[in-house]
Amino acid sequence: MGTIGITCLLIILVNVIVSFKGFRDEAFFNRYAFDVDGIILYKQYDRLISSGFLHANKMHLFFNMLALFFFSTSLDYVLSNAAFLAVFFMSLVGGSLLSLFLHRHHGDYTAIGASGAVSGIIFAAIALEPGIHVGLLFLPFRVPGWLFGICYVLYSIYGIRSQRDNIGHDAHLGGAMVGMVTALFFQPLAMVYNYSTILLILVPGIFFIYMVIRHPHLLLVDNLYFKRHHKGDLTIDDKYNSARVIREQEIDGLLEKIHKNGLRSLTKKERKTLEDNSKL
């Protein structure tokens, strides 16, 4: 096992430790998960990275770490240890930033998982290893990397547009594109010997991201996300969780105000809000 393999195992170890801490400690989980309001309103930018080390459950953690390990081994002889770390963290942040942009008006949107970073590692391997084949779970055959990459990008684009499931397609796509570009920065010769695969994957992915940034209305479709967030369709749990999150964020803001400016800076209404909350 090369240095990248050892580094990968260390990343997996950190993921396991942080994820299990999140499984047991809800406050820890909520503080470090990807949360739009937490990032935009409270400037908790560490969430862009920390969310990549939290997972929903053991199965989510297992499959992400399994994919990370297998694809990392194929990069052992084509990237330096520093380059591998750059691909991992750039992909993680890239996926988080795309999610933040697409959900910037959905204050209650949250996400967790290393999928953006793992996608970046997978697509770095596809870019730098022309003959790579990808094995799919429960299928007795492997598909060429270029075919997997194209299907993955198209499926991610469809998933972002339709939002028919709870998968973070935006983080996957953002991580994949950033991971591939970062890998090419360290190994630009790959554009010469693997240009067709790289262009077939990068062009539709980057074009879609560009169109979404320039024309955000492209995402305004009648999808599951908007249906679930329409007030008339909220379940009792949705309403309770939404109210709880709003209340907690309001209290956090008041406590931060006290910390910076003192108790006297609060208005009568704000003091009453604190008093009412202390009785809950």
From TrEMBL:
<dbReference type="InterPro" id="IPR035952">
    <property type="entry name" value="Rhomboid-like_sf"/>
</dbReference>
<keyword id="KW-0812">Transmembrane</keyword>
<feature type="transmembrane region" description="Helical">
    <location>
        <begin position="6"/>
        <end position="23"/>
    </location>
</feature>
<dbReference type="GO" id="GO:0006508">
    <property type="term" value="P:proteolysis"/>
</dbReference>
<keyword id="KW-0645">Protease</keyword>
<keyword id="KW-0472">Membrane</keyword>
<feature type="transmembrane region" description="Helical">
    <location>
        <begin position="167"/>
        <end position="186"/>
    </location>
</feature>
<keyword id="KW-0378">Hydrolase</keyword>
<comment type="similarity">
    <text>Belongs to the peptidase S54 family.</text>
</comment>
<dbReference type="GO" id="GO:0016020">
    <property type="term" value="C:membrane"/>
</dbReference>
<protein>
    <submittedName>
        <fullName>Rhomboid family intramembrane serine protease</fullName>
    </submittedName>
</protein>
<dbReference type="InterPro" id="IPR050925">
    <property type="entry name" value="Rhomboid_protease_S54"/>
</dbReference>
<feature type="transmembrane region" description="Helical">
    <location>
        <begin position="84"/>
        <end position="102"/>
    </location>
</feature>
<feature type="transmembrane region" description="Helical">
    <location>
        <begin position="109"/>
        <end position="128"/>
    </location>
</feature>
<feature type="transmembrane region" description="Helical">
    <location>
        <begin position="134"/>
        <end position="155"/>
    </location>
</feature>
<keyword id="KW-1133">Transmembrane helix</keyword>
<feature type="domain" description="DUF6576">
    <location>
        <begin position="235"/>
        <end position="279"/>
    </location>
</feature>
<dbReference type="Pfam" id="PF20216">
    <property type="entry name" value="DUF6576"/>
</dbReference>
<dbReference type="InterPro" id="IPR022764">
    <property type="entry name" value="Peptidase_S54_rhomboid_dom"/>
</dbReference>
<dbReference type="InterPro" id="IPR046483">
    <property type="entry name" value="DUF6576"/>
</dbReference>
<feature type="domain" description="Peptidase S54 rhomboid">
    <location>
        <begin position="44"/>
        <end position="186"/>
    </location>
</feature>
<feature type="transmembrane region" description="Helical">
    <location>
        <begin position="192"/>
        <end position="213"/>
    </location>
</feature>
<dbReference type="Pfam" id="PF01694">
    <property type="entry name" value="Rhomboid"/>
</dbReference>
<dbReference type="GO" id="GO:0004252">
    <property type="term" value="F:serine-type endopeptidase activity"/>
</dbReference>
